[in-house]
Amino acid sequence: MIRHPARAPQAIVAAYPSHIHRNLLPRLQGRGVGTGLLAMWIGSAHEHGVNGIRLGANAGNHTALRFWAGRGFCRLPVPASRTLWFVRSP
Fold first, then answer.
1. Which of 43, 51, 54, 58 has the most CB atoms in a 10 Å sphere around its CB?
2. What is the per-residue pLDDT across 33-51, written as a single tens digit (0 to 9) for each?
3. Mind giving me the DSSP string for the chain?
């Protein structure tokens, strides 16, 4: 999915123009690093007037799906594919 990512549907891009992508090595996962980085990114995005954030997550990566949902991102009801779309307003 990294080499050939799915394109976000245009309606999602229009409503949530900022895209975030984050990968952490397994040794850093579960230690608060991702949450801290996300908080800094969202804070900066908010300061710069970002009004909508989107991301695509691998439907098979259940850990990532829980992470994003647990940080205020809402899963959009788009047709099933390998990519699930999440959005959030800062």
1. 54
2. 999 999 999 999 999 999 8
3. --SSPPPPPHHHHHH--EE------GGGTTTTHHHHHHHHHHHHHHHTT---EEEEEETT-HHHHHHHHHTT-EE-----SSEEEEEE--
